[in-house]
TrEMBL record:
Gene name of the encoded protein: DSP4
SMART domains: Beta-Casp
Superkingdom as given in the UniProt entry: Eukaryota
Pfam families the record matches: Beta-Casp
Record-given protein name: Integrator complex subunit
Length: 696
């Protein structure tokens, strides 16, 4: 088995991407888009927002020495530095270097991991089988269609551009361009140019989705009779999953960004991932927020009592509701801030697009406003909002238990349906929709994409409210508010940047591994450097690195073979002399690969049942001394002669048979020859050989 990390991603919106070589099949796991890269483009026509203040990324300064900081300060990033052309989109940088025709399987773990797939399926050499959950397929398709819809606004601003290479890249390859922009465009090592692509079309999305096979929760699918693939809930969001792959060479589990307990999605599935031969851990999301000790490592489970021994209590410690309650407190805080802004006469713009967070915020905000005296409308502006919100109430198997119970009792899984029906939540496909214009009133609360602040209605609304100190902008943590807000500065709005859980806390990783108990644990080097896994004594731990291939040793040296009881009863077993604990039998049939297992099948009836005798088949080399002893016991006398070759080494051995009849047996590297004119002697020699060698 081989594993290559093509990209470690950058949190929820840009998940990791891996290439796996398993049982001779090449498997691509996730194909995301780095949508944060489009922040280098200006969201508005040239000249608008030119009064924006200068900005320099603190993050880029912190990584430099004092001399470099001074050089950067001499040339600060301004709004004029942003690219005022139709955006291109950045894919996984190393993916374009792989031959598409060599990919056999694509596994998509969540909707964000689907956004770059149409770029791959456009390749005429791509014929891989694509698996993802039915929910990921639906939500991901709607997200891609929404991106295409929002992107059309750029063509209205800048006009169509059908060039095969973006001309704006040449303008950024100069010393005068701020380092932050060059890093986004060219990458840290300067080899990201091949990652920029023109956005796909609706036809490309449709063609891509026709190649997808959607799977249900825990449904087993078989690829080529060899691999059994199963999707298990990761708890990250609705429809997001981890993967379990079983094959003739053992079992493998792939753990992507995951959350153990969720208030909207089905919780993390432990059972299906237990005791696999290999566990690939690919959750990089918590590295930025991890708690680091003085020696640079993360203390195991600083929030809870860490249990170093493997016991049933470990799983219970992972399933505590502390993290999920903390998430609910964050959502409640967002609601209270929005209510305060509305009470002061200001509007709230929420650019968060994580479907689970949006659903919970809609529910909490609507309940909060209903119980208060505030009469503030909630607008959701998206080309796919109506279809997406309706769909989330039709997939109970991917929801948490509480919401499943609500559906069973006859209530909607999420409360937004009631508020949409009561005209307290208003859905509109675009900001210029006629019905929106007639329904508009301020103050209001608006859910509008895109979180990058470059696409969609969030751009126009931010331009509208940026000078209002009573209004509120809600961003998700991980979005560079400095570069993201650059085209809109100066900005007087209050800004609330929220950090929502998007993966496994590193403190809980040792406990998770103790619960799952894999034989080999593959962990990113960046993770292993920041958390001590020394407490896990019985597991082989291998580090893997970005853009490097890791070779994993074979776990199952002797794969098992299934055989039916009826067929086994017809076999004539013979014990081996050299290995008495082993038996061997001959079979006319075939060895098949079916459902990930070797199966032995019979093509014809066994010859013993028809009474026909079969000639014995032997293996190994005959020792002349042993054969002569066997012949003497049968009354055949003889002697051994050793002949030498030209170089003085022993070339061959010969047994001269003297009594009762003459003959000779010649041994060489090419084989054994029996020379005699007496058929009885030949028969006795064969009988003696059968007593010396193993055979069937």
């Amino acid at each position: 088995m081989e594993l290559t990390c093509l990209s470690k991603g950058d949190g929820f919106h840009y998940p990791p991407c891996h290439m796996l070589n398993l049982c001779g099949f090449r498997i691509l796991i996730d194909c995301p888009l780095d949508l944060s890269a489009i922040k280098i483009f200006s969201p508005v026509p040239s000249g608008v927002g030119s009064e924006a203040s200068e900005y320099l990324s603190d993050e880029s300064l912190d990584a430099q020495n004092p001399i470099q900081k001074k050089q950067k300060l001499e040339r600060q990033l301004t709004c004029a530095d942003l690219v005022c052309e139709e955006p291109w989109y950045k894919t996984v940088k190393a993916l374009h270097l792989w031959e598409a025709s060599f990919i056999d399987i694509v596994l998509i773990s969540n909707p964000m991991g689907l956004l770059g797939l149409p770029f791959l399926t456009q390749n005429p050499g791509f014929f891989a089988k694509i698996y993802m959950t039915e929910v990921t397929a639906k939500i991901g398709q709607l997200m891609m269609e929404d991106i295409v819809s929002m992107h059309k606004e750029f063509r209205c601003f800048h006009g169509p551009d059908n060039s095969s290479f973006p001309g704006w890249i040449k303008n950024l390859d100069s010393e005068q361009v701020p380092a932050l922009l060059k890093k986004v465009v060219f990458g840290e090592s300067g080899d990201d140019l091949g990652s920029w692509m023109r956005l796909y079309s609706l036809d490309d999305i449709e063609s891509c989705m026709k190649k997808v096979q959607g799977v249900k929760f825990a449904e087993e699918v078989c690829y080529n009779g060899t691999l059994i693939i199963k999707a298990l809930s990761s708890g990250l969001d609705i429809g997001a999953c981890n993967w379990l792959i079983n094959g003739p060479n053992g079992s493998l589990s792939y753990v992507s960004d995951s959350i153990f307990v969720s208030h909207h999605a089905r919780s993390f599935d432990f059972h299906g991932l237990k005791e696999t031969d290999v566990l690939i851990y690919s959750d990089f999301s918590s590295l930025q927020s991890a708690e680091v000790t003085e020696d640079g490592c993360i203390s195991p489970d600083s929030d809870n009592n860490y249990i170093s021994t493997i016991s049933s209590d470990n799983k219970d410690s992972l399933l505590n509701t502390e993290d999920s309650l903390e998430e609910m407190e964050k959502l409640a805080f967002v609601c209270s801030c929005a209510a305060e802004s509305a009470d002061a006469g200001g509007s709230t713009l929420i650019t968060i697009t994580r479907i689970g967070i949006v659903l919970q915020l809609l529910e909490l905000l609507s309940n909060s406003l209903e119980s208060s005296s505030l009469k503030v409308p909630i607008f959701v502006i998206s080309s796919v909002a109506e279809e997406l919100l309706a769909y989330t109430n039709t997939i109970p198997e991917w929801l948490c238990e509480q919401r499943q119970e609500k559906l069973i009792s006859g209530e909607p899984s999420f409360g937004h349906l009631k508020f949409i029906k009561n005209k307290k939540i208003h859905l509109f496909p675009a900001i210029h929709s006629p019905n929106l214009i007639t329904s508009w009133q301020e103050p209001c609360i608006v859910f509008a994409s895109h979180w990058s602040l470059r696409l969609g209605p969030s751009v126009q609304l931010l331009q509208r409210w940026r000078g209002d100190p009573k209004s509120l902008l809600v961003l998700e943590d991980g979005i560079s508010s400095g570069l993201g807000l650059l085209p809109f500065r100066p900005i007087a709005m209050k800004i609330l940047q929220c950090s929502f859980l998007s993966g496994i806390r590193l403190q809980k990783l040792p406990t998770l591994v103790s619960v799952l108990q894999p034989k080999i644990f593959l962990v990113p080097d960046a993770v292993n450097q920041r958390i001590s896994l020394a407490a896990i004594k019985t597991i082989s731990i291998l580090n893997y690195f970005e853009n490097k291939t890791l070779h994993v040793p074979r776990i199952v040296d002797n794969p098992s073979v299934e055989i039916t009881t009826d067929l086994a009863s017809k076999l004539s077993w013979r014990k081996l002399r050299q290995r008495e604990s082993f038996g061997i039998a001959r079979l006319k049939g075939g060895l098949l690969m079916e459902d990930g297992k070797h199966r032995l099948v019979s093509g014809l009836e066994q010859e013993e049942s028809s009474g026909k005798a079969r000639p014995l088949r032997h293996w190994g080399s005959v020792a002349p001394e042993l054969l002569l002893d066997a012949l003497l016991k049968m009354g055949i006398k003889g002697s051994i002669e050793q002949s030498t070759g030209d170089n003085g080494s022993e070339d061959k051995s010969i047994i001269h048979i003297e009594n009762p009849n003459s003959g000779l047996i010649e041994f060489s590297e090419m084989g054994t020859a029996i020379i005699t004119g007496d058929e009885n002697v030949v028969s006795q020699v064969f009988q003696a050989i059968d007593g010396v060698l193993d055979g069937i």
